Backbone:
């Protein structure tokens, strides 16, 4: 086996009341990636898309993640990565994570599977460090483990795969730029204890609802008193999109990652499509370009393509 | 049927990272209660123990809770409650809740079960209002539903029964008085967002661990950065008791309710007994009187006795 092709899916992090810990994997959109052995002890990047991302492996998240893996093995060879991104950079649905995860998962298949998912996650987090300057696993965890993941801790790394029933996500990506630094600085450093209690009550109930497949409880639990109120002003028409989505039958949702994408969850694919129409109708009345996606929550992360 | 006897169990609330939402029911200790019809349209209280609690139904939590129920039915009769408390008042393991819940559950059996558990909870919360001045359901929810309960919201009331594996609690009740007002006022009004995030990550993981029966994850998740650090100074030897319990094999634990009791969870009854010895050894070196209890977490709340 000289090369491995994978599909590395988009992911949603900061799932409503699960800020900084809860995420899930979509089936689509995804990046198509091919990783192959090369004789030279180096990492080479070939971009097949038009996003003009760096080909210097130290400046490309996939290169950094794969470099971390290569540093851990005693190899005289290297890797070439071909990347055809289907996930727009800066969309807030884990574009950089997909590249990082796709690279290390594909390389691990080439190497006969010597690394565990948790080890691959550590490598991918090196890519996230380059992308965001912070050691966080909210997108890379679902991208590698699939499904819903809860990152209990990053130091040490502790990831929980959650049970969940059939669920469908609708995502709208307004093509505006939100700087991660701005999304961070807009958050309060301190929060009222009573709001924190309400948030963790909601998260506990949401995790229980996922496990029981209780959609009504999921809907009641998807409420965030802390992060969404602070950040939603960064996203045009946020309240309108949310209201219209709920009216169309969505269980709930919020800001994906640190935005600008907005996601909504539904119990049925038909509802998720109605939500897509409702979202698009709101943005069609603005000057903002946008994309929409409908996808089942995927129980697998990066997969053979 | 003229009278009904019930056992109303002790409960633990504020379960580590689940402050103000997570609680569970013990099998013992419990209050023994008998509720019987009387011809007069009133509530009469007979105390069979030596705790010298009020017999005025407006000043006794069981009387208040049962009064709330009686107000909801068109009855020309009343109830007499005989109470033999096995749960010491002020212990922090739901003594007042047991009396409130026992009274309304027993009366509901007499009435042929016309009220739902959620309705009974509303009545019992009236008793809690008298006891603590606050509308909270952290102890009454597990006392009525049994097992582990998560109170997502009190307004409107939203209670989630959690799945859980076999678990055993060890409780030590140091016989000191902690005023609820002091336990409240010692809490910060605002908390660092990063601590709140760690707490809800832990709670999410703990709920998942209960559902999966993953004891190791339970142990890693039982960590509270917010309430325990503020309140533990109110309880002599708290750190020593916790350290000794963990060394004896406990999964984790913390302050029960707002104290003074300390509880620890174990996966086996034998371990819970070793934890009891370890706790008792610490307090035996102090001047503080104490009781200890070992009990399985009970899947039923108030039960026929």
Residues:
């Amino acid at each position: 086996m000289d090369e491995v092709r994978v599909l590395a899916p988009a992911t949603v992090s900061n799932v409503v009341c699960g800020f900084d810990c809860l995420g899930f994997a979509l089936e689509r959109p995804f990046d198509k990636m091919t990783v192959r052995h090369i004789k030279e002890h180096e990492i080479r990047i070939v971009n097949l898309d038009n996003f003009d991302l760096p080909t210097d492996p130290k400046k490309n998240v996939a290169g950094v993640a794969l470099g971390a893996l290569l540093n851990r093995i005693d190899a005289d060879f290297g890797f070439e990565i071909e990347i055809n991104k289907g996930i727009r950079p800066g969309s807030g649905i884990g574009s950089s994570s997909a590249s990082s995860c796709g690279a290390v998962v594909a390389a691990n298949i080439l190497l006969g599977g010597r690394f565990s998912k948790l080890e691959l996650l550590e490598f991918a987090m090196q890519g996230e460090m380059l992308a965001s300057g912070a050691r966080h696993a909210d997108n890379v965890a679902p991208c590698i483990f699939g499904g819903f993941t809860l990152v209990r801790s990053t130091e040490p790394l502790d990831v929980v795969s959650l049970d969940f029933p059939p669920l469908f996500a609708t995502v709208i990506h307004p093509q505006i730029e939100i700087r991660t630094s701005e999304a961070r600085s807009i958050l309060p450093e301190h929060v009222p204890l009573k709001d924190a209690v309400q948030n963790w009550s909601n998260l506990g109930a949401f995790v229980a609802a996922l496990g029981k497949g209780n959609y009504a409880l999921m809907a009641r639990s998807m409420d965030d008193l802390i992060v969404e109120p602070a950040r939603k002003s960064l996203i045009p028409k946020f309240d309108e999109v949310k209201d219209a989505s709920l009216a169309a039958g969505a269980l709930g949702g919020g800001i994906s990652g640190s935005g600008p994408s907005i996601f909504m969850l539904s119990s049925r694919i038909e509802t998720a499509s109605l939500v897509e129409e409702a979202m698009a109708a709101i943005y069609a009345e603005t000057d903002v370009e946008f994309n929409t996606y409908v996808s089942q929550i995927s129980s697998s992360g990066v997969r053979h393509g």
Remarks:
- Chain A has two domains: 3-162, 168-296.
